[in-house]
Design a protein that fits this description.
This protein has twelve helices and 16 strands. With 420 residues, the chain is α+β, with helices and mostly antiparallel strands. The strands form six sheets. The chain has a five-stranded mixed beta sheet. It has a three-stranded antiparallel beta sheet with strand order 3-4-5, with no helix packed on it. The longest helix has 15 residues. Bound molecules: zinc ion. The site of zinc ion has 7 residues, from loops.
């Protein structure tokens, strides 16, 4: 009976390639069993014999192909990290007969691995060869999980691609189909794992929501912003941000000192924006309290109110973090301003604390600007601002109402009386 040349043995439930044995792990010293029948195998080599394992007693013939596949799975699962290639795709939308598309680019990145499992069951039909999970809060690769399919003899086919598409997960194929079955040892695998061209993205999580968002954004972009019906009484959804307001109140004297200093120095508007943007939300509130003289702890509901549509609003911050700043900047002084002016300032000040303001409506409103406009309409309906309703939104001028101060005083009294 001829011996079957087998490159892998099993030791401690892990595949070992015969090339990776040291010189003195010859024969039985390899301490390996056959991965198929679990019978003892001996490591053999000599001057003219290629390294291999051989059975001592039976004529079992394990499939080298599936052992290479398993070796690759185990190898990837042991990696501390994997380097993933960049991925480019397009999202598209058709709105009113016009086609729009946008390129999505994910840069190449290293994914750290916290946890790995083999053939994890996902739904009825999917069991990725390796399932990798990144450490909590990893931002480097923007990839918190990854399903890996090893392609040695069987590539992912159309049917499987369809199944994968139902998962919304990040999925790659690791291609080692060109490697020689007998030579896939640890050195070869380490080299292969490090080669970016072997990793093919099948799907990236996030592209589906990007597609959904893009459709919504193009709807927004292709239509005019229509102001919402204002509410005559402030609606507050969340309970009063009492702790935040108290914190801001405690920083009031700090803010007053700072403002006094800044008034003695000459500053451009850009300086002022950069300075205000660099403050924390709490510090900004303190500055607004110092500017307006409003008691922060008893802040009127007007400045943490719910503002209707658009959804998403384009502003990630809570109402309390942007409404009083807007008032302090624009309405505290006696002058006219438009919602687009106010939105431009807020956009600059909030920096990255906002979302999806890439596109403007046909009448020039980003989502953030639309939200600001609706807020100003609310303040008008609530008697704090005055404006002429008979002009288009972009030209509509807002100005503080003559009796705004008295109204705010009354609102503060109410706030104190309610104890909320
Ligand atoms: Zn066997």
């Amino acid at each position: 009976m001829p011996e079957v040349s087998m490159p892998y043995g099993l030791r401690d439930n892990r595949l070992v390639h015969v090339d990776d044995l040291t010189e003195d792990e010859h024969g039985a010293a390899a301490r390996c069993v056959c991965p198929e029948c679990l019978g003892t195998v001996l490591a053999r080599w000599g001057p003219v014999v290629r390294r291999h394992f051989s059975h001592t007693s039976n004529n079992c013939t394990p499939s080298v192909m599936s052992l290479v596949h398993r070796f690759a799975q185990e190898f990837i699962a042991r990696q501390p990290h994997v380097d993933l290639p960049s991925y480019t795709t397009y999202v598209g939308a058709n709105v009113r007969g016009r086609d729009y598309s946008k390129k999505l680019e994910y840069p190449a990145a290293r994914m750290q691995i916290r946890e790995a499992s083999l053939e994890k069951t996902m739904g009825a039909r999917l069991r990725p060869d390796v399932w990798l999970v990144a450490p909590e809060g990893q931002v480097e690769s923007n990839c918190d999980h990854l399903a890996v399919e090893v392609y040695f003899r069987h590539a992912v086919d159309a049917e499987k691609r369809d199944d994968i598409a139902t998962t919304h997960l990040s999925w790659v194929e690791f291609d080692i189909s060109d490697l020689d079955a007998e030579c896939v040892n640890a050195t070869e695998m380490a080299r292969a794992v490090g080669q970016l061209h072997r990793w093919h993205w099948l799907q990236r999580s996030g592209t589906r929501s990007a597609q959904f968002n893009f459709e919504q954004d193009m709807q927004w972009h292709a239509s005019a912003f229509v102001p919402a019906r204002p509410s005559t009484v402030p609606t507050v959804q969340r309970s009063k941000p009492f702790r935040k307001l108290q914190e801001a109140e405690r920083q009031l004297s700090w803010a007053e000192t700072l403002l006094r200093q800044r008034r003695t120095q000459k500053r451009t508007e850009a300086d002022n924006i950069a300075w205000f943007a660099s403050l924390t939300e709490i510090q900004r509130l303190a500055v607004c309290g110092a500017l307006t003289g409003l008691p922060l702890e008893w802040m009127p509901q007007h400045f943490y109110q719910v503002v209707a549509g658009p959804r998403p609003s384009g502003i990630k911050s809570h109402g309390w973090a942007w409404q009083l700043p807007l008032w302090s900047k624009f309405a505290h002084k006696e002058r006219d301003f438009t919602s687009l002016e106010a939105a431009g300032w807020l956009h600059a000040v909030l920096g990255d604390r906002q979302e999806r303001n890439e596109y403007a409506s046909t009448n020039g409103y980003t989502r953030l600007a639309g939200t600001v406009h609706n807020f100003l309409l609310n303040l008008t309906a609530q008697g704090l601002l005055v404006s002429d309703p008979n002009v288009r939104p972009a030209e509509r001028k807002f100005r503080r109402a003559p009796d705004a101060a008295a109204k705010l005083d009354r609102a503060v009294e109410l706030s104190v009386a309610d104890g909320n």
